[in-house]
Design brief:
Membrane topology: Multi-pass membrane protein
Structural class: mainly alpha
Strand content: under 5%
Number of helices: 18
Number of domains: 2
Helix content: 40-55%
InterPro entries: AlkB/XylM, FA_desaturase_dom, Rubredoxin-like_dom, Rubredoxin_dom, Rubredoxin_Fe_BS
Subcellular location: Cell inner membrane
Family: Belongs to the fatty acid desaturase type 1 family. AlkB subfamily.
Shape: globular
Order of helices and strands: HHHHHHHHHHHHHHHHHHEEE
Distance between the termini: 27 Å
Radius of gyration: 24 Å
Protein name: Alkane 1-monooxygenase
Length: 489
């Protein structure tokens, strides 16, 4: 079992306090940034007019680009200034923290601000009289509208991370809110693919959301976008088949998530006019591209080895790139503690821990996003870290297939060691098939034969041997059927 890093405070459990408890409210900066930016635009235009400083009016439109400024400039600087966090919650307090509803309210409140900002942006994109903001030309110029789209898209991209936090939870309302949050970016299929696809296949060549050594971001982006969409559709199509329903059914979670986007975009177009649609499209593309950039960072070049039975070893802290820089962690709800998230997907963000043995990025995710856009720079920074992680044996990495031979030839030691290595795996090869129920070894989900799993397409009374071998835990996605433990024999 991986050991978390030692809490740098060294406080006894009885005295431990979450120093980030109220800092989590800073996560509301992205969905409220547009209102703050609007205030600064109005203030600078007013001051420019009153003081006869025309340069203030000239530079005030920069505020419409607040989102990119936050992502590419402010957060990286804050990560450098404040550095790593260093605080892990004591194991004895995990349950108490999990049950503290204050933390989940911090994520819930993101959503109304997100939609308020989107509606306000739609007004700004289409308004032809903004003199109340001191804009004498009437409406926003094209550059300002594009900057506004990127600011709203940044909010939507960070909103996908909010949806990510909610979508992993077992509470039905939170899973519904996850799809609602994804409506802005038209990326509702992420709710399916991430939980039931990515978490099952992470750090393998079969996972579209795990980037490969030697693969540039601009190659990864279309592969991940289309591969994840295809995976989500196949996962739901198979579930509908088990339920004996047509694929085009309202209970198909891909379709009902997309329907939320159609309703939202349709309503905005109806209220503000069709002119809003190009900017809705631009903000959505930018928003989900931010998500995909983070996907690119999280597992670059990392590979789960196959064991003697041909199955991939279980995901461990070694299979995710982490960062404990506190500033980005605040904005992304501890997403950078990614190893613990993959080990415990249903664990709430405030209880995620940092592991000593996890491979670490040189800075926070916000800093690495900008580097990822420039493949030569990215490879200069990251390839040596992948090599060091595998002790110079590149055959153990997840390689870009089109470059594999060339990459291995460039590292002769790895080329010689290209033979597969059986990985340790504690899962039993034979299961007791006479039990009444089977429990996931990771998240305590229980499959009871008497109850079945109707939502998964297994009617009450479905025997364990009739459940497909490739079925994974519906709650955490970490354990396959073979990893379930028999109970109630």
């Amino acid at each position: 079992m991986a050991q978390p890093t030692i809490d740098a405070t060294g406080e006894p459990v009885a005295q431990w306090r979450d120093k980030k408890r109220y800092l989590w409210l800073l996560g509301l900066i992205p969905p409220t940034a547009l209102f703050v930016a609007t205030g600064f635009v109005a203030l600078m235009n007013w001051a420019g007019r009153e003081l006869d400083w025309g340069w203030l009016n000239a530079v005030s439109p920069v505020w419409w680009w607040t989102g990119p400024i936050l992502v590419y400039l402010l957060l990286p600087l804050l990560d450098i200034f404040f550095g790593p966090d260093g605080q892990n919650p004591p194991e004895e307090l995990i349950e108490q923290l999990e049950n503290d509803k204050y933390y989940r309210y911090c994520t819930y409140v993101y959503i109304p601000f997100q939609f308020a900002s989107l509606i306000f942006a739609s007004y700004l994109w289409t308004a032809d009289n903004l003199t109340w903001l001191g804009i004498e030309s009437g409406g926003l110029g094209l550059a300002s509208k594009i900057g506004l789209a990127f600011t709203v898209g940044a909010m939507g991209g960070i909103g996908i991370n909010t949806a990510h936090e909610l979508g992993h939870k077992k509470v039905t309302m939170e899973r519904w809110l996850s799809k609602v949050t994804l409506a802005q970016t038209f990326y509702g299929h992420f709710y399916i693919e991430h939980n039931r696809g990515h978490h099952v296949r992470v750090a393998t060549p079969e996972d579209p959301a795990s980037s490969r050594y030697g693969e540039g971001f601009w190659t990864f982006l279309p592969r991940s976008v289309w591969g994840s969409l295809r995976s989500a559709w196949e996962l739901e199509a198979n579930r509908m088949k088990r339920l004996e329903r047509p694929v085009l059914h309202h209970t198909n979670d891909v379709l009902n998530a997309w329907a939320m986007s159609v309703v939202l975009w349709g309503a905005l177009a109806l209220i503000f006019g069709w002119q809003v649609l190009p900017f809705l499209l631009l903000q959505a593309v930018y928003g989900f591209s931010l998500l995909e950039t983070v996907n690119y960072l999280e597992h670059y070049g990392l590979l789960r080895q196959k064991n003697a039975r041909g199955r991939y070893e279980r995901c461990t802290p070694q299979h995710s790139w982490n960062s404990d820089h506190i500033a980005t962690n605040i904005f992304l709800y501890h997403l950078q503690r990614h190893s613990d998230h993959h080990a415990n997907p249903t664990r709430r963000y405030q209880t995620l821990r940092s592991f000593e043995e996890s491979p670490n990025l040189p800075s926070g995710y916000a800093s690495m996003i900008g580097i990822a856009y420039f493949p030569p720079l990215w490879r200069k920074v990251m390839d040596k870290r992948v090599l060091a992680h595998y002790d110079g044996d590149l055959s153990r990495a997840n390689l870009q297939p089109s470059k594999a031979a060339k990459l291995l030839a460039a590292h002769e030691a790895a080329a010689v060691a290209v033979l597969e290595r059986p990985a340790a795996d504690s899962a039993s090869t034979v299961q007791n098939l006479s039990a009444d129920a089977y429990r996931c070894g990771n998240c305590e989900y229980v499959y009871r034969i008497a109850d079945g799993a109707p939502r998964e397409g297994f009617a009450p009374g479905t025997a364990w041997h009739d459940v497909p071998d490739d079925w994974a835990c519906p709650d955490c996605g970490v354990r396959d059927k073979v990893d379930f433990l028999p109970i109630g024999v």
